[in-house]
Design a protein that fits this description.
ribonucleoprotein, Ribosomal_bL25_C, Ribosomal Protein L25, Chain P, elongated, 213 residues, 13 strands, Ribosomal_bL25_long, 6-stranded mixed barrel, RNA-binding, rRNA-binding, RNA Polymerase Alpha Subunit, Chain A, domain 2, alpha+beta
Length: 213
């Protein structure tokens, strides 16, 4: 059964009204698409969080706008980093018969041989651009790094695309790499013959002699 998220049209777009929407436990949002146009809406915060967890960033689900259902995806989110809350959502009204581009999260899998030998795993990109029909977009791109040794790297061209999607990134773009361990310079031990200079020692000594006089 397809996920359905209910939404209500927003007629009043004043800033004061947006604040009231949030106070009522809703999130102001906008939904747009080439055929759909653009419409300001609001969704319940609790229902939206459940939908986002169930469908992910690239999942397609139904948005019920006052009784009319439209296939949408989450296109962009705005967060209040202090309160750790979503404060605005952009939905994209997807044409299920037309390919589209979307940024898909990269998930690193396994522990590389190089890391086991002391190397450092460097992840260069955290999302990859993918082109596919909306329903064929993957939730994530798994990148297995187990065979990576020190000074090895995985490029976009090394990744296996799915049967129903293709990568838009440059083939030579680095996704992950393993660099040599950082060499920390050895600390020199202070010589026993050298004593640290005490700042102001001479001045204090001079002051003591004056006090004696």
């Amino acid at each position: 059964m397809a996920t359905v998220l209910k939404a209500a049209v927003r007629e009043d777009l004043r800033g004061s009204r947006i604040s009231k929407i949030r106070q009522q436990g809703n999130i102001p949002a906008v939904v747009y698409g080439k055929k759909f146009g653009s419409r300001a809406i609001a969704v319940e915060e609790v229902d939206f969080i459940k939908t986002m967890r169930a469908e992910g960033k690239t999942g397609v689900f139904k948005l019920d706008i006052d009784g009319t259902k439209t296939d949408v995806m989450i296109y962009d989110l705005q967060y209040d980093t202090i309160k750790n809350k979503v404060i605005h959502v952009d939905f994209y009204a997807a044409d299920m018969n037309v390919e589209m581009d979307a940024d898909v999260p990269v998930s690193v899998v396994g522990e590389s041989k190089g890391v086991k030998e002391g190397g450092v795993l460097q992840q260069a990109v955290y999302e990859l651009s993918v082109r596919a029909l909306p329903q064929e977009l993957p939730d994530q791109i798994e990148v297995n790094v187990e065979e990576l040794d020190v000074n090895d790297a995985l490029l976009v061209k090394d990744l296996k695309a799915g049967d129903n999607y293709a990568f838009n990134n440059e083939p030579e773009e680095v996704v992950v790499s393993v660099t040599p361990p950082d060499e920390e310079p050895e600390e020199e031990e202070p010589s026993e013959e050298e004593e640290p200079e005490l700042v102001g020692a001479e001045e204090e000594s001079g002051d003591e002699e004056q006090d004696k006089e």
